[in-house]
Amino acid sequence: MISDFFLALFLALIQGLTEFLPVSSSAHLLFPSLIFEAKDFGIVFDISVHAGTLAAVIYYFKNEIQALVHAWIPWTKTRSKEDFSLGLNLLAATLPIVLAGLAFSDLTESRSSSINSIAWTNLIFAGILYAAFKSSAQSKSLTELTLFAALIIGCFQALAVFPGASRSGMAITGALIIGLNLKDASKFAFLLSIPTILGALILMLVKGAYSIALSDMLIMLTGFIGSALVAFITIRSFLQFVEKIGMTPFVLYRVALGLVLLLL
Question: Which residues contact 173 (CB under 8 A, 6 or more apart)?
């Protein structure tokens, strides 16, 4: 039997690796309990690993976040219009998943997703991602992103309430459909994860996760540190190589994953 510490470390590594890749972190975190009947640490652990990935993405994009904050300070004389517009677009793109999270809170909090449902979700949304990648003009940059286009990306991201859909994957899919180049589509999806993950953390805390036993502290610390370190490496590596590797390897992985799960 895997000890709680090593199981927590394993799950933290999964979260850090898959949160920002288009492969669905929520689905992967369900696998140990669904397939191997491993212990489910519950919402307290979810908070720790999501906080870890949030810390990683904030640290990686610290310069961009500083520029966004600077652009939104009313009394600043040298505000960047591009950074102000990007901040507005991020807010617009966040709105759909906030509404979807509230409307489907029972689904997002449920841990009863079946292997078959995760498998089919992987297959369906992998196909949509591949179609978007192959058909997209990929001719636009972030500076050309409109408020309406950002809202479209947000609507795609909102589909991540279904386990197996992948928040990052759906955001990138939406960004490719409206014509963003792959590198900027990925960057926008990562920046969009900041308010999205922060909102999820707040919702989990409101739901009662503030009741934390002392015995949970080691598990939480393991989840936070493990997911933060792996997430930072994942973000850096993905953005460096995404234009070279494209989306096809991730689509093939998700198809293979879906087929394997259907055979279980």
Answer: 22, 125, 128, 129, 132, 156
Q: How far apart are CA 20 and CA 74, in angstroms?
A: 32
Task: Give the CA dihedral 105, 48, 118, 154, nearest 10 degrees.
Answer: 60
Give DSSP secondary structure letters for 2-30.
--HHHHHHHHHHHHHHHTTTTT-HHHHHH
C-alpha–C-alpha distance, residues 96 and 100, integer Å: 6
Question: Residue 38: exposed, middle, or buried by beta-carbon count in 10 A (0-12, 13-18, 19+)?
Answer: middle
Q: Which of 171-208 are b and which e, b meaning 16 or more Cβ less than 10 Å from the residue's Cβ? A: bbbbbbbbbbbbebbbbbbbbbbbbbbeebbebbeeee
Confidence of residue 110 (pLDDT cuts 50, 70, 90): low
pLDDT over 80 at 206, yes or no: no
pLDDT in tens, 16-57: 999 899 987 766 766 776 666 667 677 778 888 889 999 999
Measure the CA–CA gap between 56 and 231, rounded to whole angstroms. 6
CA dist 178 and 56 (Å) reads 28
Collapsing DSSP to helix, strand or coil, 62 comes out as helix
Hey, where are the domains in the chain? 4-263
**Cα–Cα distance for residue pair 53/18, rounded to 1 Å:** 10
Q: What are phi and psi of 224, to 5 degrees?
A: -70, -55
Question: What pLDDT, on the 0 to 100 scale, is given for residue 162?
Answer: 85
State which amino acid sits at residue 164: G
Q: Mean pLDDT in the chain? A: 87
